[in-house]
Design brief:
Elements lengths: L2 H17 L10 H18 L9 H14 L6 H15 L5 E3 L2 H8 L10 E4 L2 E4 L11 E5 L2 E2 H8 L13 H17 L4 E7 L7 E6 L3 H9 L4 H8 L8 E5 L4 E6 L10 H19 L4 E5 L10 H6 L7 E2 L1 E6 L20 H15 L2 E3 L2 E3 L5 E2 L9 E6 L6 H12 L3 E4 L8 E11 L6 E11 L17 E2 L4 H6 L3 H11 L1
Parallel strand pairs: 9-10, 10-16, 16-17, 17-20
Antiparallel strand pairs: 1-19, 2-3, 4-5, 4-6, 6-7, 8-9, 11-15, 12-14, 12-19, 13-14, 18-19
Helix pairs in contact: 6-7
Length: about 500
């Protein structure tokens, strides 16, 4: 074979292989952006029942007018992803998500540099170094990165972690876990990071340069974070036996920890096991005349019914409903069906569509004002072994979905004392129950949201503003000192409150 021909083949092979490496910095034409944005807008308007929960139609129209104008300034996949992320976050639903295509995510995870090297954690409204293996001390307050103030960085990166309504506390959960990744998404890669900081117990502003690392190196550094002892249950996979457990502190006080409500549906073994567990520990608590029960759901991100309501039946003294109303904003099949990603071969989609139609008619049989409504929600009476003493509910910004619904019901319908921080899940309503993923055909960005709008069965309270999470009776955040020593500020506060 002629040398020139061989070289041509080699070049073609290299070009082909490079084309499969899809960087988020690749150019995306504005024409394609506009097509995807128009589809994205139509999907939200026709399928997202919560679109106008926190925003008026005029506000939604205005934000999309801005978005179409903004495209004129955009060039890359990363630019467009930022725009879709902004719109997704603006709606105010923690079940919303914006995700890269599989190929672009794979390319991101294979990057060898460009990421901020160490995990950070927001403590007392300051962004602190959460590592004792860095060039600067643990607990150092980061003031700026690459001349950008941390307040501005946190405000921008918070859009990548969605919360209900206007909640901001939940943004900390995402930033504490994914700061480096979010920074890469928003600002692009950096070879080095110019950092201005203050070491603990000092007001002197100092400066250093940190070399960037790859995606995997940052993930390894996060696994070695200083706060692992206190936040492992939030960020790491639960181990066997950690889903829920009960412990007695003393003769009068006990702690019920529930780290997830993903414990199976009504007929499953896992749900029945949980139900039996609850009955046994509440019988035990009442027999031993336990006066103070701490229910800790700070690491509970949600799950499935009826696990939340079964738990509530042991704390409430009156019958409770999970929701007042639930509806979807369409009558027949889900709009823009062909763009839904079901994770199944295309030839099976017609079967899935037929089954979904049948499901909608069964579960949401009431048609009114071009919406489908659920039937009346089931009522849960107080359990015969319901707790008679004082309940203290520990909450955090991680509490969401079924967990925040449970927290809202406890706050609304019991005399429990709520301790901790505002939940990221809403007090009055949220979108949930049925998640749908759409793929935008030009950018291959996946957009996810729940199509069912839920109004929770709670009473109106003076301290509960629409668009906010469950507000604590006592707002208690981890202190700087407890962060350094890995102590549980909220639990210690609660035990101290009981002792007094």
């Amino acid at each position: 074979m002629h040398m020139k021909t061989i070289l041509t083949i080699v070049v073609l092979i290299l070009t082909t292989s490079l084309s499969f490496s899809q960087s988020i910095e690749d150019v995306l034409s504005q024409k394609k952006m506009r097509k995807d944005l128009a589809l994205f807008k139509s999907i939200r308007e026709t399928a997202n029942s919560g679109l106008y929960t926190y925003r008026t139609p005029a506000q939604i129209d205005s934000i999309y007018q801005w978005a179409f104008e903004e495209i004129k300034q955009l060039k890359t996949h990363r630019d467009f992803h930022k725009l879709i992320t902004y719109l997704t976050n603006y709606e105010g639903s923690l079940h919303n998500g914006t995700y890269w295509s599989t190929k672009r995510l794979k390319a991101l995870k294979s990057e060898k540099e460009g990421y901020f090297p160490y995990p950070l954690k927001i403590i007392e409204d300051k962004v602190l170094l959460n590592s004792n293996k860095a060039e600067i001390p643990l607990g150092t307050e980061i003031i700026s990165i690459n001349s950008l103030p941390l307040e501005e960085i946190v405000r921008q990166l918070g859009k990548y972690y969605t919360t209900d309504g206007y909640n901001l506390t939940g943004k900390k959960v995402g930033i504490n876990r994914h700061f480096s990744k979010y920074f890469r998404y928003y600002y692009g890669p950096s070879d080095n990071f110019e950092v201005r900081y203050k070491i603990p117990n000092s007001d002197q502003l100092q400066h250093t340069t940190l070399k960037s690392v790859g995606y995997k190196a940052y993930e390894n550094n996060f696994k070695k974070r200083h706060s692992l002892k206190t936040d492992r249950l939030t960020y790491d996979k639960l181990k066997k036996g950690e889903d829920y457990y009960f412990q007695e502190v003393d003769a009068q006080t006990a702690i019920l920890t529930i780290n997830t409500f993903s414990l199976g549906s009504e007929s499953t073994k896992s749900h029945l096991k949980y139900k039996n567990f609850l009955d046994s520990i509440f019988v035990q608590a009442n027999q031993k005349d336990i006066q103070h029960l701490i229910v800790d759901i700070r690491h509970n991100g949600g799950g499935n019914p009826p696990n939340d309501m079964i738990t509530l039946s042991y704390l409430a003294s009156t019958p409770q409903k999970e929701i007042k109303a639930a509806w979807v904003s369409f009558v027949e099949s889900i709009p823009h069906w062909k763009h839904i990603d079901l994770g199944i071969p295309f030839f099976l989609k017609p079967i899935a569509k037929s089954k979904l139609k049948k499901y909608l008619k069964q579960e949401l049989p009431i048609i009114k004002d071009n919406r489908r409504y659920y039937k009346d929600a089931k009522e849960y009476p107080p359990n015969d072994n319901a707790f008679k003493g004082q309940v203290y509910l520990l909450v955090s910004p991680y509490v969401a979905s079924a967990s925040s619904l449970f927290a809202a019901s406890v706050a609304s319908n019991t005399n429990a004392i709520i301790i901790g921080e505002e939940t990221s899940g809403g007090y009055y309503e949220h979108n949930g129950a049925f998640s749908v993923e759409y793929v935008l055909p030009k950018s291959k960005i996946t957009t996810l949201f729940s199509v069912v709008n839920l109004t929770q069965d709670v009473v109106e309270k003076e301290n509960q503003v629409k668009g906010r999470g469950v507000m604590p009776t006592h707002k208690v955040e981890q202190s700087f000192e407890d962060f350094i020593e890995n102590k549980d500020t909220q639990l210690n506060f609660t035990l101290d409150l009981i002792s007094k």
